[in-house]
Design brief:
Chain lengths: 402, 327
């Protein structure tokens, strides 16, 4: 297990911040309370891909989480709350569990997890951890974690694949693009994304005319024009849907298709939790704060990390408690609301711990739309038209809420 | 054609000068800031017509007159300055230092101190409008927005959108004295004329809180229900109160309605349908007319206060934001 060594820049920022912090704290602030948060990240080896794509920055998630800490501390000047982040890099799920156990042993509760599904399950199934920790998943989109394997005190601020594909499907249906040609990669994640697309198609009345698996191994920079044309040859479809999470071939599908049709999915028009081009509802301020801090654009994992820490901050301020149990009860109560630059107040689903939120639909340089689309109604919240709804979920999550 | 029209204008003005005594010398004018046009629109409140468009700094948002209405202050957010416009000549005569990204402000009753919220860096800037210099900066919560000064000049209140607080600043010492936690994303604050209550809107919380100024605690909270409008879309922003503290008007953002609250009865008595994404509100001097800026539809709605009916919508620039009335 390794602890991240802070760079000189972040050290300077921290020092400057602490100085500013101590100067601005007035005699009026209440008694100081420390709220430590652990950030666990599991080392991840990027899979080699055929096309030369832009890699996700290594500090994805950590930078967003740290910005959440900074934001909480700006408000904390007035409430006397001081949030601290400890970041840990681990090699596997056993190390992750060990780090979490050590954390709760010190009397702490809050853990922001940039971990794959296996590690999340290991942590949430560990009796001690499950009893004392509150885990925020900011990375893993697996629907199983929200549907059959949800665990008490395991919350998700990153949207699930089903939320993403439902958001996309609503938009495509509102355009009346009902006939989909589904093109997917061979990897497990591609199959999961493809399964989510099929569920969304069924849910909103789209028709998948065919599902095709990519079999080639060539570097598409040289041959896309020919290969994709043949791969997407079909009599008629309104849109090609791409399921290629790592970006092996998907980047080359738009414009190369047999028919002159738009592309959407993991490439083309893409559903995501967050994108740098979002500016409405004051989002420009968050984007500015993030790029000032991290010197890059904010992505969906950063946003999920920011959401996790802001959710803790809101619950601490409103419940006026820093105890894990009380904060958790507040997070899951009807009173909890989080304003997060998406034009609606966000809250956690009581049946699986997923944060309900609108889904932006973007292409690399612009926000195109945001789902739920107009007209998709729900008795509780329009945002619950995205992802697995209460009757579709089968897990013992709700029992954890008193 | 052109000659024809000018002839008609001459005839009309001759007619007006004949009737000169019966008509008030100058009708009231409504000034609107157009956020995405870098202009102000001026509307004649008698004829309900657009009479001029004035080019100003970048991304104009909050606007407010000085006490004698000879000058208009304009938050030119992307120019990082507060502009001072001479109302008579309609020319910008000065740029006040304002701190970064000024969004909204309030003028102290002393007609001298302007309190400006700087959205990007969590401070309130105090500017002396005579000396044209910054006299203080006060740390507040994340994304300061709404700003109001109590009628007696004692309190300056600022809202921070992401800390969800009202910050109470003593105008004598420019020190932060207290904070009141309110609903998600507080946007606007407005004191009642008697200075006893403060109204605050929470855009994402969907509520309006009425705060007792003496104790700085929430006395009452209003929420809104419009048949056929989903509750998430009810996002209160602008608030204005009548001088007699009888009615409160609340702009409900993307719900496209203005709520009318009877303050004595403590309930919403009517929802008025206006343009899309209604942002801010202003009453004219005798409180017979209410004007709303409607961001997405790019127009303003004029409401008759007595009958609580919308009289007319008037096209202005792109994304109208602030409203101020000159008697």
């Amino acid at each position: 297990m390794k602890t991240r060594i802070p760079t000189p820049l972040s050290l300077i920022i921290t020092v400057v911040y602490l100085v500013l912090y101590s100067l601005s704290a007035t005699a009026l602030t209440k008694q100081q309370r420390d709220i430590p948060i652990l950030f666990i990240e599991q080392k991840h080896v990027e899979t080699p891909v055929l096309s030369n794509i832009r890699r996700t920055p290594e500090t994805s998630g950590l930078d967003g989480t740290q910005l959440g800490i900074n934001d909480n501390n700006t408000s904390g000047r007035f409430t006397g709350d001081n949030y601290q982040l400890k970041a840990t890099l681990v090699n596997d799920d056993s190390e992750a569990a060990a780090a979490a156990r050590a954390w709760i042993k010190d009397g702490n509760a809050f853990i922001v997890a940039k971990l794959p599904a296996a590690a999340l399950l290991k942590l949430s199934r560990d009796e001690d951890i499950a009893k004392h920790a509150i885990l925020f998943n900011i990375l893993t989109k697996d629907d199983a974690l929200r549907r059959s394997q949800c665990r008490p005190r395991l919350l998700h601020t990153i949207p699930s694949r089903a939320m993403l594909t439902d958001g996309l499907a609503q938009f495509l249906m509102s355009k009346r693009w009902k006939k989909w040609l589904l093109l997917r990669g061979q990897r497990v994640e591609d199959k999961l994304f493809s399964a989510a697309l099929k569920r969304s198609a069924h849910r909103f009345g789209a028709n998948i005319i065919e599902e095709r698996e990519w079999q080639f191994n060539a570097d598409l920079r040289r041959s896309a024009q020919n290969e994709i044309r043949l791969f997407s040859q079909a009599k008629d479809y309104d849109v090609t849907l791409i399921a290629d999470e790592i970006g092996d071939i998907g980047e080359y599908i738009p414009y190369n298709t047999w028919l002159a049709r738009p592309a959407a999915g993991t490439q083309g028009l893409t559903p995501t939790g967050w994108h740098w081009s979002i500016e409405q509802w004051g989002a420009a301020q968050l984007q500015n704060r993030f790029s000032d801090y991290a010197k890059r654009d904010m992505n969906d994992i950063d946003y999920a990390g920011w959401l996790a820490v802001r959710a803790i901050g809101e619950a601490v301020t409103r419940s006026n408690s820093i105890r894990g149990d009380e904060v958790y009860q507040y997070l899951m109560s009807d009173d909890f609301q989080l304003s997060a630059f998406k034009g609606r107040s966000l809250s956690f689903r009581k049946w699986n711990g997923q944060l309900r939120q609108p889904i932006p639909l973007v292409h690399p340089n612009a926000l195109i739309s945001q789902s739920p689309q107009e007209g998709y109604l729900h008795p509780h919240s329009e945002m619950d038209t995205l992802g697995y709804d209460r009757p579709e979920v089968n897990c013992a999550f709700e029992a954890s809420i008193l | 054609m052109k000659n024809h029209r000018s002839f008609r204008i001459v005839r009309a003005s001759a007619l007006l000068s004949l009737l000169g005594l019966a008509i008030p010398s100058m009708a009231e004018q409504v000034y609107i800031s157009n956020e995405k046009d870098n202009t102000l629109s001026v509307i004649d409140l008698d004829s309900l017509k657009l009479i001029s468009t004035i080019a100003v700094g970048q991304r104009p948002r909050g606007i407010t007159f000085n006490k004698d209405f000879s000058q208009l202050y304009i938050c030119a957010s992307d120019s990082d300055s507060v502009q001072v416009m001479d109302v008579k000549s309609q020319e910008i005569i000065a740029n006040l230092p304002s701190g970064e990204d000024p969004e909204q402000f309030a003028l102290h009753p002393n007609n001298k101190h302007l309190y400006i919220s700087n959205e990007d860096n969590a401070v309130v800037t105090v500017v002396d409008t005579e000396k044209r210099e910054v006299i203080s900066q006060i740390d507040v919560g994340l994304e300061p927005e709404g700003m109001a000064v109590s009628p007696d000049g004692k309190w300056v209140v600022n809202t921070s959108e992401t800390s969800n607080m009202l910050h109470w600043i003593d105008s004598g010492t420019h020190k932060l004295i207290d904070n009141t936690l309110v609903g998600q994303r507080p946007r606007h604050v407005e004191f009642s004329d008697d200075g006893k209550t403060l109204w605050a809107s929470s855009e994402i919380g969907g509520t309006v809180s009425v705060i007792d100024v003496a104790t700085r605690t929430i006395n009452r909270e209003y929420s809104f229900h419009i048949p056929g409008v989903y509750k998430d879309k009810i996002q209160p922003v602008g608030i204005t109160l009548t001088h007699d503290n009888r009615l409160a008007f609340v702009a409900l953002g993307p719900a496209n309605h203005v709520a009318v609250i009877d303050i004595a009865q403590q309930k919403v008595i009517k929802y008025l349908l206006v343009g899309r994404r209604v942002w801010h509100l202003a009453l004219n001097s005798d409180e017979t007319r209410l004007i709303s800026s409607n961001g997405i539809s790019g127009d303003v709605s004029v409401i008759d206060v007595k009958s609580l009916a919308v009289l007319k919508s008037i096209k202005v620039g792109r994304f109208p934001w602030g409203v101020a009335v000159k008697p």
